[in-house]
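[Automated response] Your request has been received and processed.

Submitted sequence:
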Amino acid sequence: MFHITILAVGRLKEKYLSEGVREYLKRLSAYAKVEMFEVEDESFAENLSVVGLQKVKEKEGMRLLNRLRPNSFFVALDEKGEMRSSEEMAYLLNKLALTGNSDITIAIGGSLGLSKKIMERADLIISFSRLTFPHQLFRLILMEQLYRWFKINRGEPYHH
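Generated structure:
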């Protein structure tokens, strides 16, 4: 069985998003052990310098890396990553399982994105869209996609 860990910067504050995430965690339990860990986000001034913003991302990135298991296949979500379809991601899950990589960690950055160290450590960097999503909402989108990938792989209705 897959063990999927989602690492996210910041706390999920909106009740409707928390309820949606809980619903998908429940649905996913038939396919994988899925856990979500939130790390503290750094507060920063709107007029912070570029160097200051980098330091914020580095601090958040270290918190994420501290939660990463050593042998986990690590996926970073970034707007500049490669875009794949739901079917391609479902295929990747199958491929990982066949090669003995059933431990997967997925990182969602804060409002500034992910640090350079996170990007360098990632086994795969993907983008869900060229659109920008609020990082809080994106957690729910990711959960829905994970569910979709498992449904595709099992040939179960939901996908179309």
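Summary generated for your ticket: The chain has one domain: 2-154. The chain is about 45% helix and 25% strand.
If you did not submit this request, please reply to this message.
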